[in-house]
Design goal:
The protein has twelve helices and ten strands. It is α/β, with parallel strands linked by helices. Strands 7-6-5-8-9-10 form a six-stranded parallel β-sheet, with helices on both faces. It has a four-stranded parallel β-sheet with strand order 1-2-3-4.
């Protein structure tokens, strides 16, 4: 049977909202009943998006009287690809919530276009796991830029690789490690070969949380090259591991990156990214790892 890939793996984007809502509500009502049997009635429900966790939370509030709050993360709001039906549903969920929050200041401003409900800022948090490993003195003279993300157009690894070419050809002891998987992998590997830097760019594939921490702890700088991010949890994980940052001004990073912990550049600006990587190569050792970790711990 020939199936459409997107419809198979992303059914919520292609199925009518009414059918999806009914399906989610039926499943959630059954699971909620099981939850009550084991744990008793909760005090509050925290829904991590309007669609469809918020829809479920609103249903459970109406049926069982349990209040809910909503924290929105989805980048679909920035892409402005929501139907009128979905926008109406969002407003209903928002006005019936005890509180609505967004994960970054810029994203908060975007969400204001979709609801009249007051939206507060509630940043994402960093897993305590990333604070548990002590820093080790680096023995190798290699300099490693690290990037972790799904390999897709939005994360813009093409910009990152093209920007890395300049510094890579100045010193063969400088490396770019890219962790993650996605539909862009083959084209990115081809680009690396085309630029003749395959000996200095390593594709690590999808890696575990423990491996993420290990890679961060042995790197010198973390780079995020996205076109848009509602927040950027990987940035605060990197800070917890003592890594200075380079990030695009793509939304969320503006709440995280400052002059004390890294460099912000404009989206899709190869010249700025080249300069930032060169600057970080020269100055990364001047960042105090413990101060970067303390900032992540205090703020996130």
């Amino acid at each position: 049977i020939k199936r459409d890939y997107k419809q198979l793996y992303f059914p919520h984007r292609y199925m009518p909202l009414k059918i999806l809502k009914n399906n989610y509500i039926k499943m959630a009502d059954k699971l909620y009943s099981e939850y009550i049997k084991e744990f008793g009635m909760p005090d509050i429900i925290h829904a991590h998006n309007f669609l469809y966790a918020g829809v479920v939370a609103e249903f459970l509030k109406n049926k069982y009287g349990i209040k809910y709050i909503v924290t929105e993360h989805s980048s679909s709001f920035a892409r402005n690809n929501l139907s009128h039906e979905k926008i109406k549903s969002i407003e209903d969920v928002a006005k019936n919530a005890s509180k609505v929050t967004a994960v970054s200041s810029s994203f908060n401003n975007i969400l204001k276009e979709y609801t009249k409900t007051k939206i507060d800022l509630l940043s994402n948090i960093v897993d305590d796991f990333f604070f548990q490993k002590e820093f080790q003195n680096k023995i190798s003279n290699d300099f490693i830029f690290l990037h972790i993300a799904s390999l897709d157009k939005n994360k813009n690894q093409e910009l990152l690789i093209r920007s890395f070419e300049k510094i890579a050809k100045l010193n063969d002891k400088i490396y770019l490690n890219i962790a993650g998987d996605g539909y862009m992998k083959k084209s990115l590997e081809a680009l690396v070969q085309q630029l003749d830097i395959e000996k200095q760019v390593n594709f690590l594939g999808r890696i575990s949380q423990e491996k993420v921490r290990d890679e961060m702890m042995k790197s010198n700088c973390f780079v995020l090259s996205s076109n848009f991010e509602t927040f950027g949890v990987v940035l605060i994980e990197a800070l917890a591991c003592g890594l200075p940052l380079i990030a695009t001004k793509c939304g969320g990073p503006e709440d995280i990156v400052n002059e004390q912990n890294g460099i912000l550049i404009n989206v899709e600006n190869q010249l700025q990214l080249e300069d930032a990587m060169m600057t970080m190569y020269k100055t990364a050792s001047k960042y105090d790892k413990q101060k970067l970790r303390s900032y992540a711990k205090d703020r996130f």
